[in-house]
Amino acid sequence: MSHSDLTRSTIIYSALAGLIVALAACGGGNAAPTATATPAAPTATPEPTISPVRAAQGKAAFIRIGCVACHAIKGVSDQALAAPALDQAYKLAQDVINSQEYKKSEGTAKTPREFMIESILEPNAFTYPTCPQGPCVKGTMPQNYKDIIRAEEMDPLIDYLLSLGR
Ligand code: HEC
Known about the structure:
The protein is mainly alpha-helical. It has a domain at about 50-160: Orthogonal Bundle (Cytochrome Bc1 Complex, Chain D, domain 2). About 50% of the residues lie in helices and about 0% in strands. It contains seven helices and two strands. It has helices at about 5-30, 50-65, 90-95, 100-105, 110-120, 145-150, 150-160, and strands at about 130, 135. The protein has a two-stranded antiparallel sheet with strand order 1-2. The protein is globular. The two termini are about 25 Å apart. Heme C (HEC) binds near residues 82, 128 and 142.
C-alpha cells in the first residue's frame, strides 16, 4: 500500500466515522428526557491499534514541528523541560478529561483523541497545571499550529501521542 493509499483510506475512514457519529447524534437528539432516564455510564472509547509505521510518521512530525523543544519523550527529547513530558500522553489525556479542573475549563474534549487535537489547535482552552519547573504558564504553547502543521502530519501526530502510555 502506498503512502497516498494509506492517507486516502484514513480520510475515508475518518469521514465514515464522522458520519456514524453524526447519525448516532441525530437518532438520540430528539428523545424527550423522562423522569426514569438514567445518564449513560461513561464508556471508554477504545482507540484502534496504531501501526508502527504510523507511529513512526507521527514521531517524525513531533520532531519536525518542534514539539521536542518543550515536551520530553524518552529517547526522543529527554532534555525538554518547558512543558509536561508526554511519555504517558494517552493516560495523561484520560486523567485530564476526568479532572474537575478540566470540567471547569473551556475544554470540550470527551476522548483522548479530542483532547490531543484541542491541546494542539486551541492550547488555551485548558492549561495543564504542572510543568517540570513549576506551574505551567498559559500561552506557552505556540498558538499558530493550525497554520504550521501540515494536514497530512496531523493524524499521524495524534496517533503517535495516543500510542504513548496505554
Ligand atoms: C514552546 C513550548 C511548547 C511547544 C513547542 C509545544 N508545547 Fe505543548 N505544551 C506546552 C506547555 C507549557 C503545556 C502545558 C500548558 C498548557 O496546557 O497550555 C503544553 C501542553 C500540551 C499538551 C497537553 C498536555 C497535558 O499534559 O495536558 C499537549 C498534548 C501538547 N502540549 C502537545 C504538543 C505538541 C504535539 C506540540 C508540537 C506540535 C507541542 N505541544 C509544542 C509547551 C509547548
